[in-house]
Amino acid sequence: MLVHKPEQVKVTFQPVGTRTVVRAGATVLEAGREAGLILVANCGGNGLCGRCRVTILDGRAETPTRAEIEVLKKEELVAGQRLACRTTLYTDTSIHVPRITMGNQQRLQLDGRHAVFTVEACVQGHVIEVTKPAQKKTVSDFDRVTHSLEKAHGTVGSWCASPSVLRAVSRWMREPGQRFKLVTRANEVIGLVDGDKQLLGVAVDIGCTKIAAYLMDIETGKQLAACGIPNPQISFGEDLISRLVYARKGLHQAQELAHCVQAGINQLIRTLLQSLPESASAGPEQMADLCVVGNTAMVHLFLGMPTEGLLVAPFLAATTSSIDIRAVEAGIDLPNDVYVHVLPAIGAFVGADHVAMILANGLHQGNHVSLGVDIGTNTEIVLSRPDQGLLLTASCPAGPAFEGGHIQHGMRAAPGAIEKITLKEGCLAVQTVGGQPPLGLCGSGIIDAVALLWQMGAINFRGHLQSGTAGVRDGDSGKQFLLVEAENTGHGRDIVISQQDISEVQLAKAAVAASIKTLLKISKTDPDEIQELVLAGAFGSYLGVGSSINIGLLPDLPNATYQQVGNAAGIGAKMALVSAASREQAGRVARLATRVELKQQEGFNRELALATRFPVRQQEKDRHA
Amino acid sequence: MLVHKPEQVKVTFQPVGTRTVVRAGATVLEAGREAGLILVANCGGNGLCGRCRVTILDGRAETPTRAEIEVLKKEELVAGQRLACRTTLYTDTSIHVPRITMGNQQRLQLDGRHAVFTVEACVQGHVIEVTKPAQKKTVSDFDRVTHSLEKAHGTVGSWCASPSVLRAVSRWMREPGQRFKLVTRANEVIGLVDGDKQLLGVAVDIGCTKIAAYLMDIETGKQLAACGIPNPQISFGEDLISRLVYARKGLHQAQELAHCVQAGINQLIRTLLQSLPESASAGPEQMADLCVVGNTAMVHLFLGMPTEGLLVAPFLAATTSSIDIRAVEAGIDLPNDVYVHVLPAIGAFVGADHVAMILANGLHQGNHVSLGVDIGTNTEIVLSRPDQGLLLTASCPAGPAFEGGHIQHGMRAAPGAIEKITLKEGCLAVQTVGGQPPLGLCGSGIIDAVALLWQMGAINFRGHLQSGTAGVRDGDSGKQFLLVEAENTGHGRDIVISQQDISEVQLAKAAVAASIKTLLKISKTDPDEIQELVLAGAFGSYLGVGSSINIGLLPDLPNATYQQVGNAAGIGAKMALVSAASREQAGRVARLATRVELKQQEGFNRELALATRFPVRQQEKDRHA
Questions:
Q1: Is-above-0.80 flag for pTM?
Q2: Domain with B166 in it
């Protein structure tokens, strides 16, 4: 799309009286969405179904388009009726939305916090009652089906289908009295299912460590099952880089990595279907759509796309666009001509999972200033200022400390990992995963530990362990802090925090803190202005927010609420699966977002160095307050 | 599309001064085509490329659409510039077409007679010069390519590509200084070729007996090679019905028939490429598009679509729509993501080949009343009355007599077949295929023979051989006429025309004649009004037109020219391959055409019975004149 300065127009919707401001040139449908109204648009806003009728009360809209003249009756046109999806606005306008055009505003609570959206998937089902073909009119089987479609749903258009679907259609159309459900996607018939069977879809979040999949009823938007498996690529290297290096060896190796994820997704689909109770059992033929998110490297590896560019500067993705391909081309075994939709990415290190997170939390919408942070080895950050049309994104390599990597007694969040540490009556109390005797520290435990060391004065503002403080002693490789004595651990050895561990945490937290600070600086945003900080991802959800603020990992934002939202990427994927409008919005997020290359920002390195320090202690702040 | 009575508007194009009348609601681009002007429309008339700029001089056009506002600059909009493809006309309008918008009107003479068309294929090539990626801007490889596309060609849009194409794009984009040609189809990048290599396409006409293929340069529209092979399905039955019966046995059998044609097309593509001179050699990676025609049964068998409906009343095709599928899904082995386009059909017995014939001869255009006839075992007939917006089509099973079937000494048009018979100084003179001693009669020879029998008075108006006439004698199974004595034949046996042969010809010619007569009656067309009769297909091209009129196979049309146009279906396929406008017109032909079910027409059977008779002899007519 060519860019030209959008002017804004005010739109008022009657009889509800809702107002919104949109860019000049937006359609009434888009303005409705902005205003939180859900107008019926069966055809996906393509001017075909004629369902989104509205009347312009005052203000200047364009004269009717050809689509409108074709779809609307003459008397409707004369009465000023228009299609919301075709009518563009260039001046302040007042619009009447008849009751029939108002969607039923079905709002859905997915697993976790998310923005409001309408359930109306890209893939739709239409029940067809087979009648006997007329002897006099020799209409092809496919035309008979599409005519019923058009009659029953008011949709018109030029439909297409693959030979295998045409084969199935013909088989059914020869059985008068039967009923089946036609599965359509845009203008393509992609399959059909028996009788009234519900249409299913799967949302997939490909993580470096884990692949999560959610089985959804795409007609009602309800989640039916969820399931996760370790990413089978782990056998090629636990970290991303080793897998990228392996894929670089050749096409065969890249295919190997691709097949391995594809096989994982196939397995997840089988498991999801098997996990349904017998009363609600469903078969693979009911699968109608797939929606995939993941970081850019994961998505590239999943589709066997070239990843060489992701390994060397200037770090180029093969593509960041959304991708729609037949499931079979993506190695997913399903009957029917099901497609896989991969959400768009923003850049080589700000992937589709981040877009999904922004979508899930509606960070691009509304009018509040917010920060979104997905902390991990690679941390993605977004600063949203809808008031300025700004959506700044950046990624920073925080290193593996947050996942327990490079930490002497670090471990994953497995049973026995210390996940939380509190100070109880002057003594440290540890909480482990599964309540088992401690074996080591996972990310959130490490943050808590360092925060408490700082709180207790066991380290100074440069992070140096202070000899003579309780618990600090000399170890094999410099100073260390004794966290759990051998007799209380699961393996009979002391669990300590070393000076080196503290340095690792300092580097990691500095990367995140300096990145956030730089984004605030670029957008001239004062910390006071931030109204919300969203912490996404597994680590972000377990993180102690207080500890994080105390050590300066997260900024102390006086007017913000801190939200820990869990697997927001998965929620975004589910939304894009069951809502065409959400899928479209994901595209808008990717287009709207600006990638900030932090290392190219003046002063970033200085910020980074400063941010390794520890901020003023809580007590001291309180004393000053 | 909803139907409402179109009103007509007059359009004048300046500075050329051409005028035309189109239906209200037509776009300027469509009006231009009607007026014979070829306006540039790189994006295929989708409002994307901005090349079809025109200025409205007077008359009321709609206010600019959103696409126009996006593509045109503000000053251009203010100056009244519009996109011809987006501007719809509802009143008489005068339009200025700047020189830059006028296509170069490249008109092409394909092999045979055909309507005028523009060479501008659906698939396009765009040369990309690879530059070094900027270090500061991390734009994905694919985005860099599409940006160059947009910069060089003024096209904007949201592009997509499959992982395998993305892989190839990334590989090339890492080689600064190189150049390659990107192959696009609508908004998809379907492949790329080395440097400046030309893009090729193949037009295929799948006949029951023969598959013909034409290798075309789709950028210039030039034919590079042509080739034909017997349809390998012949091993499953020489006639259509036996193949349909075989396919009905099961999916496996249907697939067998499909693979067999697909293998034939793969072989043809290899042969076509190998037949190129070394100086113009080309590889399969240059193949960018395929366009296929054939009768409905052949198309169904080619794609493995269900054919059961074609065998029993009411004779239903699985589909008559045009089909676009990836070549690989149609069993065609080609690199890149090439598609196969199959032209739409009109009905179960009026196939894509007939649509291609109408397209090739422009029978749906212009303003003259015409008849198109493709004579064969199944004869298709079209009556076009553009003045009434009528395009009536019908098929009649004329039986195999025209192909030498069911005729005692009938044979295919192979060497030794009598193809022409003339009366020289009272004696019959035969001409054979290849000038070899006669072995039998092919279709055109049979028609000539019967016409001469009638001319000479050897048969009466009911077709009965008249004893006592020279050459008529008693044979084993009733009367017969001695055509060539044993001593003059290639096999040393007499070649005769039996009473039974004459009856077969009578049945066949009656079917064609009664069908034509019925179409004339339905459309209230007087034979005087017909200005052209087009005879298409192999048989129609060799047929003696005089003999055909004499025996009443073809009507005697006083004001018509008779055109024998050869393989018009193949020409139509070539046009639809190299011209997006022609492809679109094929769709229009299929939509516009009305199928007439002859057997359901009142009086058809009576016409059929009457048409078995022979008409008044030429001499007698002359005498009366």
A1: no
A2: 123-194
